[in-house]
Every structure is written in C-alpha cells, then in structure tokens.
Amino acid sequence: MSQVTVTEHLLLHQKRTPDATGRFTQLLHDLIISAKLIARSVSKAGLLDVLGETGEINVQGEQVQKLDEYANRVLIHRMERSGALCIMATEENADIIPVSDRFGQGDYIFIFDPLDGSSNIDVNVNVGTIFSIHKRLYGSHPDPGISDVLQPGSKQVAAGYFLYGPATMMVYTTGQGVNGFTLDPSVGEFLLSHPNIMIPETGKIYSVNEGNYALWDSKTRKAVDYFKGTKNRRGHPYSLRYVGSLVADFHRTLLYGGIFAYPKSYKNPERGEGKLRLLCEASPLSFVAEQAGGRATDGAGRILDIEPGHLHERVPLFIGSKNDVDDVMRFLA
Ligand code: P6P
C-alpha cells in the first residue's frame, strides 16, 4: 500500500474545503515542523543534559523542566511565523500571546500544552504536545482578544496531539473523523498509520490515579469501584493502566477503549477541583474522542459544551468508550 504522508493528507483536506486559503495547511505544516524539533530533543533528552529543572516556576506552579521550556519556545517562535494566527495561548504562559502582523496575521487561534506529562521526562516515559485550534469570532471587538480564546470546545476547527514515545505519532481531527500518523525517522515524514480511528464502544481498561481515592467524593468512588467489580458490562474487573502522562493514557484509551479519568479531588476540603486544563487538555482530547465515537464529560455534562470562564480553567475529566463514560455518568449525575 502506498504510504500517505500527512502533507498529502492535509492538501487533500484543503482541496475538499471550499474557499480554503491554504492558511490552515500552513498552520499545521509549521506545527508539524515544531513537533519534529521537539521529538528530536525529547529523544536525546538524556544525552544533551537537557534534563533537570530550570529552577523556574510556570503559571501552573509546577517546576519547569528544560524540555518544557524548549518545547514552548519552539512552538511560539514557529507558530507566530505561520501567518495564520492572531492569538496564541500556552499552558506555560499566564496570559494570551497576541500575534503581531509582523509575520502576517490570520484568523486562527492556537492553544497548546507544549509538553504534557513533563514530570515523566527524567524517567523516559512518553510525553506529548496537545493542541486546539479555533477561528476568531468577529463580534463587537475590533481586535482579537481573550474572548476569542474562551470558546467552548464544540467550536474547535481542529485538535489533536503528538506523542513522543517508542514512535512519534500525530493524531488529529478537523471534524471529519480521526487519523493517526507515525513519524518515519528515515524519511522525516509522518505517514498515515491509523486511518479513521474509532474507539471501541466498551473497553476493558480503566485508567485513574487510585492514589487519590481518599480525596474523591462518594459518587466518584462508586463509579471507580464499578470498574473494579463484577457488576459492570464485562461481568468482571477491568484492568488498571495508568502512566501518569495524559497523552499516553489517552492514546491507549483511544485505540484500546475503556475510560481515562481525572476526577475532582478534595485536596482542598472546601472545594473539589479538577487538575486537567480545559482549554489545552480536556477540550482538544474531547474533540478527538467524540470524533472517534467516544464520549467526554466533566461528570455533569459534555466537556465540549463548557463555556470557559478563564484561560487556565481546570476541569474533572472522564473520557473514552461511549458505554463506559455513559456508565460513569449514571453514578455522577
Ligand atoms: P497525577 C502530568 O503532569 C499531568 O498534567 C497529566 O499529563 C497527567 O494525566 C496528570 O498530570 C497526572 O496527574 O496527579 O496522577 O500525577
């Protein structure tokens, strides 16, 4: 079978898009180059003394790993030159990043987590880049701003992730299904390896940090116990798999089915809160999950329906096979 490169796949998509200007293709092209640069550094992390911490703290209050910083810089530098954007937002920066018309402006909003799972970098576990793309809103405000970024996930025009692991993969959707590409290092191209990904309706794996069990409310405990018991759809316990790197845990869930959960936890007794970020983690992965026939909820409703309140909003996340997420909703609603 002749291999389809992601570039060919994008051009095909562009041909099928009426009045396409090619800006979207250029945007993804520059994103792909950024991911190749990040993949190269991640694969050599142990050798280039890139490991270890810069000693700085990012907006999330987490130690910034040098690779985090590098990935963030690469994406900002290259994406602002794509000529397709008017605003960027990254998990690593407190505020939005307006894109000047110095390199040409476009109508797209680019939101990203440059290197998710970074706490695993030092132990050589998969990490990933997650991205979400919106179109700016032409409302009352003349200049693009925060209101163009705070859109519900249902308005995304594209979303996906890169997974840096035994293989480097790109998985993305533009609303017409989900396709996966694997980087062939000898060619330097992402080749179509997983066409039209569909998540199994019911899985055999649940993925959650059981170490937080004491911090969950009773509804959440009952939902997780359901998968550990025999009264579930399988009639016997699901397997537990948890990498602690969202992109790795999600990618396995997408291909094998089952459910990934990061429930609300009551580390702060007054108010339970989620850990994962809505705009640059939950929203893009929920778009991919739904396009693959899966579901994604915060326990109350659909992730893609949430109107974001602020840039770094965090949400609880239950995502994966349609039947498994529906079952969780019976416990949590
Ligand atoms: P915990 C990584 O830091 C991350 O943001 C996600 O990649 C991952 O799913 C989650 O946190 C792991 O969190 O509390 O289980 O270590």
Short descriptors:
single chain, 333 residues, alpha+beta, Fructose-1,6-Bisphosphatase, Chain A, domain 1, D-Maltodextrin-Binding Protein, domain 2, 2 domains, 8-stranded mixed sheet, 8 helices, binds 6-O-phosphono-alpha-D-fructofuranose
Secondary-structure topology with pairs:
Blueprint: H1 6-16, H2 23-43, E1 53-57, E2 63-65, H3 66-79, E3 85-90, E4 97-98, E5 108-116, E6 127-135, H4 146-149, E7 158-164, E8 168-173, E9 178-184, E10 189-194, E11 205-207, H5 218-228, E12 239-240, H6 246-256, E13 259-262, E14 276-277, H7 278-291, E15 295-297, E16 314-315, E17 317-320, H8 322-332
Helix pairs in contact: 1-2, 2-3, 5-8
What does this entry look like structurally?
The protein is α+β, with helices and mostly antiparallel strands. 29% of the residues lie in helices and 24% in strands. β1 (53-57) and β2 form a beta hairpin. α1 (6-16) runs antiparallel to α2 and α5 (218-228) runs antiparallel to α8. The protein is globular, with a radius of gyration of 19 Å. The chain starts with 5 loop residues before the first helix and ends with a helix. Bound molecules: 6-O-phosphono-alpha-D-fructofuranose. 6-O-phosphono-alpha-D-fructofuranose binds next to α6.
